Amino acid sequence: MSASDPKSTPPAAEAAKPELTAKQAAALVKRAVPQPPDEDGKPQPDKMVAVKAEEVLSHKVYEDGRVVVVTEDGQKFEGALKESAK
Question: Which tens digit of pLDDT belongs to each residue from 16-27?
């Protein structure tokens, strides 16, 4: 790849991205699970539940801190790396 290639990634940027296991990536993303209506028939808000590591087909961490997880059934979820203590 040449230096003018826009798709080339500098080695320093690649080294800066943390490597996560499927279990770690799954813990960083949540899925919305619909809840049944209450006794009065009023809709309830969706419950946010962590994705299970066993469901993860693939995951990727982007330079901006986004974590994207694709599950075995083809669903795509996005989360973020946790901020380090300041």
Answer: 566 889 999 999
